[in-house]
């Protein structure tokens, strides 16, 4: 018996790409494979195998391989942004701390002046 491919490469690639996208958007959703299999009218077990092969690095699915790397790059960029913001906030907080100390000293002086009157 000759093995026939039931699904085209386009369908397989699109389904795997959708799984990758949905996993990124909905990391806690455990029914993604079932939903995507229904959406593309493919067998859930077939889709599971295709995704496993992608996850194992056995084959690359065009954009899906890029999508797998993209979140890491976006996360690293976002971490760098947040670190820069945090550093900026530390500088502002440090300056505010100095301003607060000046205000405390000024309030002591004003309170002393009011007490004299």
TrEMBL record:
UniProt keyword list: Coiled coil
SUPFAM superfamilies registered for this protein in UniProt: Homeodomain-like
Keyword Coiled coil: yes
Coiled-coil features, chain-numbered ranges: 72-99
Pfam families recorded: HTH_Tnp_1
InterPro entries in UniProt: Homeodomain-like_sf, Transposase_8, WH-like_DNA-bd_sf
Keyword flag Nucleotidyltransferase: no
Name used for this protein in its record: Transposase
Organism: Saccharothrix lopnurensis
